[in-house]
Amino acid sequence: MPDLPSRAHADGTLDAPVILEVQGLAVDFPSRRGNFRAVDGVDLALRAGRTLAVVGESGSGKSVTARAILQILDQPGRIAAGRVLLHRHLTVKGATAARGAEQVLDLTAMPPRSAAIRAIRGRDIAMIFQEPMSSLSPVHTIGAQIIESIRLHDRLDKKAARARAIELLRQVEIPTPEAAVDRYTFEFSGGMRQRAMIAMALACNPSVLIADEPTTALDVTTQAEILDLIRRLQASHGMAVMLITHDMGVVAEMADEVVVMRHGKVVEQGSILDVFEKPHHDYTRMLLDAVRTLERPSPRRLAMRAAQPPGAPILRIEALRKEFPARRRLFRPTPAPLVAVNDVTLELRAGEALGIVGESGSGKTTLGRCVLGLFDGLGGRILYTGRNGESHDLLAMSQSQLRPLRREIRLVFQDPFSSLNPRMTVEQIIGEPMLVNGTHQGAALRARVAELLGLVGLPESAMERYPHAFSGGQRQRIGIARAIALDPKVIVADEPTSALDVSLRSQVLDLLLDLQARLDLSFIFISHDIGVIRYFCDRVAVMYRGRVVEVGETEAVCTTPRHGYTRALLSAVPHPDPRHRGLGGRHRYIEGS
After folding, report:
1. Choosing a second label site near 52 at 20 to 30 A (CA), which of 134, 362, 441, 523?
2. Helix crossing, 142-153 with 190-201: angle to 10°?
3. Which pTM does this prediction carry?
4. Model pLDDT for residues 340-392, shown as the tens digit of each residue
């Protein structure tokens, strides 16, 4: 591994005792095509009471490094070289541990299924996984899962373990922990599930907490709460935290030290201030530039609007309302229906990008699906001016009447992985809407698919390949090509960049801006990422609990928000500047205040 600059910490980070050392770690994944080295010569150290952020794009080896530490690699992965040393400070666990008495354990020398490594998992080293829904059991209560973790390491009876589980849920600020302990995973929101995962990780007071993308699937306000919770628990428990993320704003807010990984190697490491202010490696500079680009409006969009402002409204949403009936429960009163969209009035102009922003559950995606005609039982009106100049109320039309208009209003999905059929080639995926609508077939269809691939920056040779052969950014380009195949007027983009690395987000947004200019598209752009909205959208509507609480020009809303909820959203966004950490003092919105 090349020599990396050694950087001292002005705040005394290097004076804290080392809890975990990774030395020359290499991880291989054998396959029929040869050996793939996912992690190559990684060195890092975790210190008591400090946070080490490991950053890099998808495929850089961050999560594989974390799993190798705990010997939970997916098969056929194996540790090929290196050591993972756990320092057990035998006096007091945490930041106040003495330098002298310690026990050093080599975790790589322990078989993955041995009792020795199982005794370390959870007690000494705990891990928070990226997706709590798939990491928690759906058939056991939250309390049962925490109690199992406690009794695995501590000799407590069921009553004492349950009391400990309730106290842990209280520590992570889950409301009414006495009742929550008996609830199932599906009864919790995303943020509450992540809190439950943290409670489980803290069950045995570990010395090291590994947090693998703990906030990726969360909206900004929930993310801010989880980050604040991790920071407070770290201060009270004295844990060393290894934070794995690709969000440089989260790194700037949380980290004391930073390790930058690319293609399985560490390309840069040092203190948070040195890495952000004096990056040595081109890749680090690229990551920082990519996130800072989304801190301001796109110059391309500003130039486009100066040359041609948005035209007349082509889509009007008037007093739109969508209710979902509550599930009936035996021997219990039926709850009131959930009002997902409540009296929403908006308009979309020709050639405009209208952003819809808000937390999870605010009604953003439901609003987009209402526009696409995917729900029945809607109140209000959605007036659309079609390509022929005629105005239609989409809510008053039958499915057969809507079919031709659906060629003009198309959808880009959030997840480029699950939205493409893995059994179809790219040519079949992009060509399917044209075959279904009878617009192209045969040689003309193939030529059109090649043209669409060129528009989204992919080679003609991609037609013969399957989705698994492409990266996340390339898959999203395929999804965009499918969306524009029928020459639409309006595209509803539902979180189209949330599953992408930060370096790919600006590329995909620039692609959409280019297509907007070339094809005269209008966008309803749904996102919880204020930076993405600011970069891409001309106007923005802020949604809270089904209602639109603020609408205006994007820059005006982002710089001088009028509504308290908008101010709360903006203050929860972590900025890529470690000298201005502000999530702890963010504005909190209380309805009616």
Report:
1. 134
2. 10
3. 0.82
4. 899 999 999 999 999 999 987 788 989 999 999 888 888 999 999 988 888 99
